Structure to design on (1150 residues):
């Protein structure tokens, strides 16, 4: 059997930014969504959605494949409570898996990814090789999601390739 | 062969062949290049920096100043490698350096006889005048004559990478103290990282015959290392040198991943640069033995005593059979004993009158001279040494090895990286860390604990303290059985009666006389002395020379060493290749690049790209038969103005704003008013910096009562977003408005030209694009093939034009559709150059005009500035200097001679005025050939410009040509009434 690839690009996903209004308590947003938004740099999964805290009162909502317009759906639910913008095109997304994945990421990311500091549910907005990234740990093996702005995807992939070869 | 028949931590079953200056030699696995050279009787290894004196191997560690060699050949050629740090492998090629024509006969050794002129401050004194000769003559001359190895000048074929480490306890150095510390912290379950520059942990233990817990010291070190390796919470990095301590408890280290391998596996890095963040750190870097400054102390065959012991005990290599040990410290007597054990004859010279180990050595057959000194040596390699005896008599003896020990300096350079000056310890005769960098402690010999047992305990103790400091229970202390004999010594630094040159700094060729002369000339501050003589300023940062220099300074100024003071060490404490700092970021990948969503399609369409910040933007699209860029750009402009063109404007910054206070925020950000901007309309806007100068311009579109979308210039996209974040989070946190960058979400295309409506109507058949339904500056959310998109009727080109924005994922699809639908309209792609030409033709300000020095008024936007509201920059824009009506204002320029080419950067002067600065009236900011007008045009910032339309001026650009005559005009060259864009 072929070895599981450490890194794979994700396609077919929808992504939306949600920013709570100044006076909208996150609990009201959660109630409107029917799902608790994480507080702090954490990510949670509700049904088919992954909610990722990326800044105070700011989240990215990620959903696999889009039959429904994710941003449209969220906008409707959160009308008057939050700014929702579609970011499905704005990011390139990668999934990383395995013990080597942590080692690889730690080559470029200058925050501590040791399980004692960063574990399933942890999220961070940081830099990898001078490229801004959003990182969250999705599984224990470990597995991660990494997103960078799409315009940087080529440089990001180049860095990953060099590091993969160096592992 | 000087290889002993048995002993040493080498694998005699693995013979490794290598070459030195082309000569075939061999060593064993476990050797360094230096030990293999010692075992092969190679004494002469290099030539010195300034005097080209023959030099050998002085030490056995990273402090080596002499034995610098060039490894490998061709592009992998690696100069200035310390032979003592090079792990031997089969096939290694090493070459000596700084000699011509050969190591044995170096023509520039004549410098030695000229040494009276090569004294301290030689460069400053000699090459003063004429100054013009510095670059052309002096510097190249000096560089050739004085120097180290040469670079290959070829691209480095190896790769380098970065890595990050986070730990509870960082242990720097895996000698006795470091290993004891790592075991203590590791067994307590903390995350421990251990750095060891050698390929074998053990430090001092590897070179001595002392025992720990009843076993050989090296065996104990191996056992400790093995235990650390099985602990999951401990990371031991060998071949890794810590090179710097930085703020925030950050440490830099270089791991030599593949330097010891004959071949680097594909993709594997040669070296890895570690950035380590440690909650606690223990500096257990040991101590460096200091040489003594006596006449001829630099001859091949003179070594530090500990190095001799290390070659014997660790490598089974005997550096000489007729040995003289010149020591002022007890550890030198251990070396004498090692030499005797290895079968050498030994004479010991010690300036002290009494030495407690003397009798024992004498019994073993050593000849002793107490109260004596060495005053001179002869030979290269060394053949003779002259001893000044206690009774004043002199005696010359035949030797082939001189081991010297002036005592030990704790290796605490790293601890002064953050500016903490070490303090003199009178009892130990060395500098110790006084105040340490935050969360760092010293242990072992680095802390002045020179006795082995004491060093081990201090390591364990430091670790226990660290464990406690991290809030864990204090671990019970291990017991160590080891020799607790203090390594005593006398403060003895130099021999005043020396014959010939007595070197202080071996690598930079600084002698005792240089130091004395510099002091005579007034360089009595330790910092001045260092720079004037270059003492301690070579790549070894004075690891072996510093103390001797301090002592000489103290003696020459009549101060104590404590009063004379010491210098600081700065990173890198060990040399680091620049390539390691660069990592993967080199060549094309020096910095990340940003590609527009339709980049690949632009390429297919024949685009050449231009760097705009990190972005690659299509610059122009060459067609077959076009060779000249101007020809291409002229065609793109003409086809756009005459038909329809499409330009990718995706790189513009885009920000989405929403909230009850969104309109209020926008009012405060821009100089012009948006309060009454209706939904479905776009307006041009200008924002100022707090200081009143223009920051950026762009468009503001209202998509809902509380929903706005603004665009920025490409260059200022991030800056404007930051500005807005600052405004909403710091200036007015009470405003209920949310803003986010959507630059990457939207791809945007400008569709411009008289046929743009016809073209877009084909792409959007269900949307009424008529002037009545969708007039100039209209905006609307649209649906294109089921996708939410946006359409704006804005124009940068001055033509009837639109901007259509689609999600970036569908950018190529949209672009393809525009070109398919417009084939019969001869739709043309145009790049940033044509865009630039058209904006100059329309007099739009862009980067060269929005240069951080212009006001809204300067740019002709004074009328836009609202007097009825407050906005960022309003107050300071009213400063007299910024409100001065005579300030340079944006104007157009046309050449009198229609064929003349105007150039940006030219200065504007009145005709006939002297071309001097006080007559300067402004400068050309942007220039272009206007295919529409058939001649060159320019935008300029000219004093009182707007009242001078029609006036003739002279444009001075002396570097590129003779002055040109031009006429000041309205900056809007094409369609000044704006009829086309409203058509």
């Amino acid at each position: 059997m072929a070895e599981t690839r450490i890194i794979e690009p994700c396609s077919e996903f929808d992504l939306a930014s949600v920013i709570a209004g100044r006076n909208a308590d996150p609990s009201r947003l959660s109630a409107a969504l029917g799902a608790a938004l994480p507080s702090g740099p954490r990510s949670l999964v509700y049904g088919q959605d992954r909610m990722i805290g990326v800044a105070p009162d700011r989240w990215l909502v990620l959903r696999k494949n889009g039959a429904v317009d994710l941003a449209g759906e969220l906008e409707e639910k959160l009308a008057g409570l939050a700014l929702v913008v579609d970011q499905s095109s704005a990011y390139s997304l990668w999934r990383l898996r395995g013990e080597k994945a942590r080692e690889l990421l730690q080559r470029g990311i200058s925050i501590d990814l040791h399980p004692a500091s960063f574990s399933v549910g942890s999220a961070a907005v940081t830099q990898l090789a001078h490229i801004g990234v959003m990182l969250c740990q999705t599984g224990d093996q470990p597995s991660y999601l990494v997103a960078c702005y799409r315009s940087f995807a080529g440089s990001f992939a180049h860095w990953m390739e060099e590091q993969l070869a160096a592992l | 062969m000087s290889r002993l028949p048995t002993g040493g931590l080498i694998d005699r079953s693995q013979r490794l062949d290598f070459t030195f200056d082309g000569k075939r030699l061999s060593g064993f696995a476990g050797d360094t290049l230096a030990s293999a050279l010692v075992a092969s009787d190679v004494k002469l290894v290099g030539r010195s920096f300034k005097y080209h004196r023959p030099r050998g191997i002085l030490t056995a560690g990273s402090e080596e100043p002499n034995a610098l060699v060039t490894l490998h050949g061709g592009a992998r050629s690696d100069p200035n490698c310390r032979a003592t740090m090079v792990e031997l492998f089969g096939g290694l090629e090493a070459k000596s350096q700084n000699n011509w024509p050969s190591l044995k006969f170096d023509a520039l050794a004549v410098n030695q006889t000229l040494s009276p002129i090569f004294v301290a401050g030689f460069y400053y004194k000699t090459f003063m005048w004429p100054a013009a000769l510095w670059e052309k003559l002096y510097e190249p001359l000096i560089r050739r004559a004085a120097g180290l190895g040469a670079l290959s000048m070829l691209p480095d074929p190896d790769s380098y990478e970065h890595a990050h480490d986070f730990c509870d306890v960082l242990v720097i150095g895996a000698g006795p103290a470091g290993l004891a510390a790592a075991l203590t912290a590791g067994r307590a379950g903390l995350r421990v990282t251990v750095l060891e520059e050698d390929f074998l942990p053990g430090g001092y233990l590897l070179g001595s015959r002392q025992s720990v817990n009843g076993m050989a010291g090296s065996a104990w070190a191996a056992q400790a290392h093995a235990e650390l390796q099985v602990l999951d919470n401990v990371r031991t990095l060998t071949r890794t040198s810590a090179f710097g301590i930085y703020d925030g408890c950050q440490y830099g280290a270089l791991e030599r991943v593949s330097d010891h391998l004959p071949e680097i596996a594909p993709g594997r890095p040669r070296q890895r640069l570690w950035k380590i963040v440690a909650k606690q750190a223990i500096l257990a870097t040991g101590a460096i033995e200091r040489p003594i400054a006596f006449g001829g102390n630099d001859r091949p065959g003179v070594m530090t005593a500990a190095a001799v012991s290390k070659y014997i005990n660790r490598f089974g290599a005997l550096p000489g059979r007729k040995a003289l040990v010149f020591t002022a410290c007890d550890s030198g007597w251990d070396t004498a004993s090692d030499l005797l054990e290895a079968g050498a004859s030994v004479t010991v010279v010690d300036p002290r009158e009494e030495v407690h180990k003397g009798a024992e050595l004498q019994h073993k057959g050593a000849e002793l001279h107490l109260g004596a000194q060495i005053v001179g040596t002869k030979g290269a390699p060394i053949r003779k040494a002259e001893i000044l005896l206690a009774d004043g008599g002199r005696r010359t003896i035949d030797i082939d090895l001189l081991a010297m020990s002036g005592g030990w300096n704790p290796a605490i350079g790293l601890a002064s990286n953050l500016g903490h000056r070490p303090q003199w310890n009178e009892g130990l005769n060395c500098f110790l860390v006084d105040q340490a960098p935050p969360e760092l402690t010293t242990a072992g010999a680095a802390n002045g604990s020179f006795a082995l047992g004491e060093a081990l305990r201090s390591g364990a103790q430091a670790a226990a303290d660290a464990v406690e400091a991290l809030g864990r229970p204090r671990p019970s202390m291990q017991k160590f059985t080891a020799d607790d004999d203090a390594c005593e010594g006398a403060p003895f630094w130099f021999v005043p009666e020396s014959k010939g040159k007595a070197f202080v700094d071996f690598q930079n060729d600084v002698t005792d006389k240089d130091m004395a002369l510099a002091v005579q000339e007034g360089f009595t501050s330790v910092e001045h002395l260092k720079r004037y003589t270059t003492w301690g300023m070579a790549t070894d940062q004075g690891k072996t020379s510093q103390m001797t220099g301090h002592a000489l300074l103290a003696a020459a100024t009549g101060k104590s060493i404590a009063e004379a003071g010491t210098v600081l060490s700065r990173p890198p404490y060990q040399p680091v290749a620049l390539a390691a700092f660069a990592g993967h970021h080199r060549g094309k990948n020096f910095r990340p690049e940003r590609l527009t969503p339709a980049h690949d399609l632009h390429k297919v369409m024949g685009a050449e790209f231009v760097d705009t910040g990190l972005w690659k933007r299509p610059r122009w699209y060459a067609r077959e038969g076009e060779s000249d860029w101007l020809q291409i750009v002229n065609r793109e402009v003409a086809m756009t103005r005459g038909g329809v063109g499409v330009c990718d404007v995706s790189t513009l910054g885009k920000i989405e704003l929403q909230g009850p206070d969104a309109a209020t925020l926008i009012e405060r950000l821009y100089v012009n008013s948006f309060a009454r901007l209706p939904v479905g309309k776009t307006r041009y806007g200008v924002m100022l910096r707090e200081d009143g100068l223009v920051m950026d311009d762009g468009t503001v579109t209202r998509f809902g009562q509380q929903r706005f979308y603004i665009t920025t210039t490409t260059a200022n996209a991030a800056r404007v977003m930051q500005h807005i974040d600052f405004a909403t989070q710091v200036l007015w946190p009470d405003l209920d408005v949310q803003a986010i960058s959507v630059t990457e979400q939207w791809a945007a295309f400008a569709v411009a030209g008289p046929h743009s409506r016809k073209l877009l109507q084909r792409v959007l058949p269900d949307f009424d694009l008529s002037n009545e339904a969708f007039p100039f500056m209209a905006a609307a959310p649209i649906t294109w093939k089921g996708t939410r998109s946006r359409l704006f009727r804005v124009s940068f080109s001055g033509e009837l034009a639109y901007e259509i924005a689609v999600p970036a994922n569908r950018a190529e699809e949209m672009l393809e559709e525009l070109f398919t639908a417009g084939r019969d309209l001869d739709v043309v792609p145009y790049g940033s150059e044509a865009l630039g030409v058209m904006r100059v033709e329309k007099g739009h300000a862009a980067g060269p005009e929005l240069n951080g020095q212009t006001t809204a008024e300067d740019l002709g936007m004074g009328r836009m500035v609202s007097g009825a509201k407050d906005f960022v920059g309003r107050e300071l824009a009213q400063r007299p200097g910024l409100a001065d009506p005579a300030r340079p204002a944006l104007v157009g320029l046309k050449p009198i001679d229609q064929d003349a080419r105007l150039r940006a950067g030219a200065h504007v002067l009145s005709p006939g005025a002297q071309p001097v600065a006080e007559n300067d009236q402004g400068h050309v900011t942007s220039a272009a050939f206007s295919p529409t007008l058939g001649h060159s045009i320019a935008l300029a910032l000219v004093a009182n410009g707007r009242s001078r339309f029609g006036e003739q001026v002279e444009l001075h650009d002396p570097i590129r040509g003779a002055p040109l005559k031009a006429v000041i005009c309205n900056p809007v060259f094409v369609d000044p009434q704006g009829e086309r864009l409203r058509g």
About this structure: Chain B touches chain A through 50 residues (CB under 8 Å). Residues 327 and 405 of chain B are 5 Å apart (CA to CA). Chain B has 25 helices and 50 strands. Chain B has a mean pLDDT of 94.
